Amino acid sequence: MNDRILSVEERLAEIERRNIRVEADKAWETSSFRILSVCAITYVVAAAAIYFINVRNPAFNALIPTIGFFLSTQTLPILKSRWVERRMSKNRGTTTLS
């Protein structure tokens, strides 16, 4: 009996550790730091590429993909929540408990 209790406690502790990791991953995905970091990387890479293909004003033109990425990070959560709501309402009638 004690072995079973220890086994359950070990599994519970592992689930709790996993939940902490999952919560940290979720927080990273929506963090301002991540968004700004990717914007900065996008800007630098785009500016370098534009510079090497001899387009005028690479510093200014690199803003286009950077702004595009930033706007997508701001609108995707809205689109996701709408999609999830529609999917959940669609599945309400077809879900069974068994």
Short description:
This protein is mostly helical. It contains 4 helices and no strands.
Separation of the first and last Cα atoms = 29 Å
DSSP summary, beta strand count: 0
Q: What is the 3D form? A: elongated
**For the residues shown, what is the average pLDDT?**
89
Overall SS class: mainly alpha
Number of domains: 1
Please characterize this protein's 3D structure.
With 98 residues, the chain is mostly helical. It has one domain. 84% of the residues lie in helices and 0% in strands. It contains 4 helices and no strands. The longest helix has 29 residues.
Question: Which features characterize this protein?
Answer:
98 residues; mainly alpha; elongated
Secondary structure elements and their pairing?
Layout: H1 2-29, H2 32-52, H3 58-61, H4 63-91
